[in-house]
Specification:
This protein has about 130 residues and is α+β, with helices and mostly antiparallel strands. It is about 45% helix and about 15% strand. The strands form two sheets. Strands 1-2 form a two-stranded antiparallel ribbon. Strands 3-4 form a two-stranded antiparallel sheet. A hairpin with a 2-residue loop joins strand 1 and strand 2. It is elongated and about 65 Å long.
C-alpha cells in the first residue's frame, strides 16, 4: 500500500481556533525543531517512525503482517500523538512559538519549512527565555 496517514490536529491559541491534518513526518519535524530551537526545555517523546510486525504461528498461511496502515496501529499512534500535543499545550510559550505556529497553521510541506527556519544566535535563544 502506498500513501500516508494524516492525523487531525485542532486547538486554540492566541490567534483563535485551528484545525488541520498532519502527516507523522510533520510531527517528527516539529519535535526535532522544538528540541533544537528550545534547548533545555522538556519536549515530550513521540512514537517511533516505522512499524512492522509479523504475528508468527505454526501455519505460515496464517501469519499476520501489520504495518503503518494497520487500523489498530493508526489508533494507537493517534493516541500517542494526541498525548504529545497535550503535553506541549501545558506550556503556553511553546504553543505560541514560531515553530508550533508553523506546525498548526502552516500550509504546504511543513517539515521542509521547519528545516529551513533561520538559525538562532545565542542571544536570540536567551531572549526567548525572558
Amino acid at each position: 500500500m502506498h500513501g500516508h496517514v494524516r492525523y487531525l490536529i485542532c486547538g486554540v491559541d492566541s490567534q483563535g481556533p485551528f484545525e488541520d491534518s498532519r502527516r507523522f513526518k510533520e510531527f517528527f519535524a516539529l519535535r526535532k525543531c522544538l528540541v533544537e530551537r528550545w534547548p533545555g526545555i522538556y519536549i515530550p517523546a513521540i512514537p517511533e517512525k516505522k512499524f512492522m510486525s509479523v504475528e508468527v504461528n505454526k501455519d505460515p498461511r496464517k501469519w499476520a503482517v501489520q504495518d503503518n496502515f494497520d487500523a489498530k496501529f493508526v489508533v494507537e499512534r493517534t493516541l500517542l500523538l494526541e498525548k504529545f500535543i497535550k503535553e506541549i499545550a501545558k506550556y503556553e510559550f511553546l504553543i505560541e512559538s514560531k515553530e508550533f505556529k508553523l506546525f498548526s497553521r502552516g500550509q504546504g510541506e511543513i517539515d521542509t519549512q521547519m528545516k529551513n527556519l533561520p538559525g538562532q544566535r545565542p542571544t536570540q535563544i536567551l531572549e526567548k527565555y525572558r
